[in-house]
Specification:
It is built from 20 helices and no strands. The chain has helices at residues 8-36, 41-48, 51-59, 65-78, 82-109, 111-118, 124-137, 140-156, 165-184, 191-215, 229-243, 247-258, 266-301, 305-342, 349-362, 366-381, 386-435, 443-470, 478-502, 506-516. The chain is globular and about 65 Å long. The protein is mostly helical.
Length: 517
């Protein structure tokens, strides 16, 4: 095997840097969508076309394949059984990818009646376009699912560099597809973006990951039994995730489904706000969860429960700290940020105001997104799949009810509040269940959250005031929006750090000690 395994700090740095770059490219993709298409029916159709493909991915636990497969491989690597790890990979890979191919083919045939049922609010012309684009996007799930197993193989070996390239390549391909589409038609349809997504999945999520896994030791061994024990273990771990769906997984799909009730352009406006909010979520929550999980899995496999608890607490505390700081920053500079990122071409001043209002609500849930990522992975590391699945499914059911009620009362804003409340309920309930039986140590999370929220409220207020001194929502220019964004963001960072230090935050002192070292 080539290269060296990373420590958790280095892994977090690599993953967070990769997530940052992929999120920046994701914003560039969304900026292009905003400029070329805007907040309208065409944008709604583009978003709606990914609902069925993504549901297929979730049905196969595609988003959790690394979580379910890493512990299987980690147990073998703990005993230096590299050959056994390769056999386990082959056994699981052929079953999962084979099932994905079959289900993709079935959905290609049944796309029309399924989308007729899902999107009753769309016109016949819009529905026909969604059906056509969905059939382009569906095959990408084969590459996503197979690629997730290839990434899991690398994560189990504590290699992170190649896997973080997947979303980067994916976003680049969508951007290139959009540029090609814009060059061929005016106004551009959504086709180029969808074809770009398919190509990006094939290259970034599968082909490059195949090379990365081979590079760290993957070999497709012959003669692996179809009834290999790894398949049974995988199914036992993945079945709860297939049968039940968490609110964190379905949150984006609720936007695509319930967004049709908010009128033309509603799905687009909600999606733009959510994408912008997921930048700090990805940098904080996803980076912490992905980087920590292989280490948590190794500690669990070695039976070191005390160290597992301590690592989870430390990671969750830091995630809450950074997540609250990120929420304060979004609340302070969301308005100039939206204008800088989106207000080009077909994206109007009114669109910016709408998206900024939705973003301000979404930001409240950033700490909850981070907390659930870490705590859920602590359960998964111990192969305890049911608690996060059942709690997450309960929160998803809560989100459905809240969405129906709150959309009717408050339109798109109600749908965002439904997302925030259900995600908060999920994170808090899951954490309380995890803390149960672990003594007073769990109180550290409550203390970390309390200090971080206090610092975040003060920092958000100071940053908002400073941003308004430099920018004017009514007089759009790059200079004033950039000035407000930088001044407000810098104020949030300084005030948040100062207040956290004054309150005795362990996290800010840890970061300071690490920086000085």
């Amino acid at each position: 095997m080539k290269g060296r395994a990373m420590g958790m700090g280095a892994a977090a740095l690599v993953v967070s840097s990769g997530v940052l770059l992929s999120r920046v490219l994701g914003l560039a993709r969304e900026t292009m969508l905003a400029a070329l298409i805007g907040v309208n029916a065409v944008g709604d159709v583009y978003r709606a076309a990914f609902l069925v493909p993504d549901l297929l991915n979730y049905l196969l636990a595609g988003g959790y394949l690394t979580i379910t497969f890493v512990p299987i491989l980690a147990a073998r690597l703990e005993s230096d059984d590299v050959a056994g790890g390769n056999q386990a990979f082959v056994a699981v890979f052929r079953v999962v990818t084979g099932l994905t191919i079959v289900l993709t083919a079935v959905l290609m045939v049944w796309t029309t009646p399924l989308l007729d049922l899902i999107y009753p609010q769309l016109s016949s012309e819009q529905l026909a376009e969604v059906i056509r684009l969905t059939r382009i996007a569906l095959p990408a799930q084969v590459f996503f699912v197979g690629g997730s197993l290839l990434m899991a193989y690398q994560y189990a070996h504590r290699r992170f560099l190649v896997p973080v390239a997947a979303p980067i390549v994916y976003n680049l391909a969508i951007i290139m597809g959009g540029l090609v589409g814009a060059a061929l038609a005016d106004p551009p349809p959504a086709d180029g973006f969808v074809w770009g997504a398919l190509v990006g999945a094939a290259i970034g999520n599968f082909s490059i990951q195949w090379w990365g896994a081979r590079r760290v030791g993957l070999r497709l061994v012959q003669g692996v039994a179809w009834k290999h024990p790894a398949v049974r273990t995988y199914l036992a771990l993945a079945l709860p995730l297939m049968l039940a769906q968490s609110v964190a997984v379905l949150d984006e799909q609720f936007v695509r489904f319930f967004g049709q009730l908010t009128g033309e352009g509603g799905i687009s406006a909600l999606s733009f706000a959510r994408v912008l909010n997921m930048v700090p979520v990805g940098m904080v929550a996803q980076a912490a969860g992905v980087a920590a999980f292989p280490f948590l899995a190794s500690l669990a496999a070695a039976g070191r429960r005390r160290q597992l608890t301590e690592t989870t607490l430390r990671t969750a505390g830091m995630t809450l700290f950074l997540g609250t700081a990120a929420a304060a920053a979004v609340l302070a500079v969301g308005s100039p940020g939206v204008r800088l990122v989106f207000q080009w071409g077909a994206f109007s001043t009114a669109d910016s105001a709408t998206v900024a209002q939705l973003l301000a609500v979404y930001a409240v849930a950033i700490p909850a997104w981070g907390l659930h990522q870490v705590i859920a992975r602590s359960f998964y590391a111990e192969r305890r799949m049911w608690p996060p699945v059942l709690i997450g499914t309960g929160a998803a059911a809560m989100a459905v009810v809240l969405s129906m009620v709150m959309v009717a009362a408050w339109d798109a804003g109600g749908l965002v509040w439904a997302s925030v409340l259900s995600m908060g309920a999920y994170a808090v309930t899951l954490t309380l269940y995890w803390v149960r039986g672990r003594g007073a140590e769990g109180n550290r999370l409550a203390m970390s959250l309390g200090r971080s929220v206090a610092a975040g409220v003060v920092a958000a207020g100071a940053g908002w005031w400073m941003a308004r001194l430099f920018s004017d929502d009514a007089a759009w220019s790059i200079a004033e929006a950039l000035g407000g964004f930088v001044a407000g963001g810098a104020t949030v960072a300084l005030v948040f750090a100062a207040v956290s230090w004054w309150l005795g935050s362990r996290e800010v002192r840890s970061l300071w000690a690490g920086w000085r070292a």
